[in-house]
């Protein structure tokens, strides 16, 4: 495939597009680094919110179970009823 004039490669061996001036090259590398850092930070925030939400949900569920009274009567009530007969 001879798509480039003079047979110049599309990308250099380090993955940076060939044919860029040195200033454009450093700008491209810094842009790729910014995108990579932004992706990592975004994933960190998303997983942090997810795990924090799950932890709060588990804690609130256990607090609700602690506060809810049991539906069945206690053993003391049963003993009092049997003592009346």
Automatic annotation (TrEMBL):
Quick check: keyword Membrane in the entry?
Answer: yes
Principal place of residence: membrane
- Keywords tagged on the record: Membrane, Transmembrane, Transmembrane helix
Query: Which organism does this record belong to?
Result: Dipodomys ordii
- Show the taxonomic lineage: Eukaryota, Metazoa, Chordata, Craniata, Vertebrata
Q: Which PANTHER family match?
A: PROTEIN REPRIMO-RELATED, REPRIMO-LIKE PROTEIN
Residues passing through the membrane, by range: 35-58
Q: How does it sit in the membrane?
A: Single-pass membrane protein
Query: What is the protein's name according to its record?
Result: Reprimo-like protein
